[in-house]
Amino acid sequence: MPRNFDGVPLSAAVTVSVLGAKNRQGTSLSTDPRVIAESLRTITPRREGDAWRKVTTVEIPEVGPAARTYGVEDVPVAQGDSRTLRMVLTQTYVPVPGTADQVVLVSGASPVLDLAEAFHDVFDAVTSTFRFV
Asked: What pTM was computed for the model?
């Protein structure tokens, strides 16, 4: 969604991915949203302007509970690269019904930090429309 509003460039993206619920050793992980939320870490800023992340669970209409992180985070440019991009980021982990080893990750991101709260609201609204068909 790249747009230019009164000379101010805005961009954001929402992606939906299906992930296997296994760790690097191949051990199955729980897809229970409460367990997922407990495994995710919060980031507490040390000072104004630092990266931060909150972890919670949410209820998606017609889908059920899901784990969620949201915040302003430093995202690596590439694996093994020490450079990062600071992004507004919302990630929602939705268990796939009828399976015990898959989750859908709905991820919203934007580099427009001044509108972090508004983008979290937009990403929440978009994610709330998610359905399995």
From this structure: 0.90
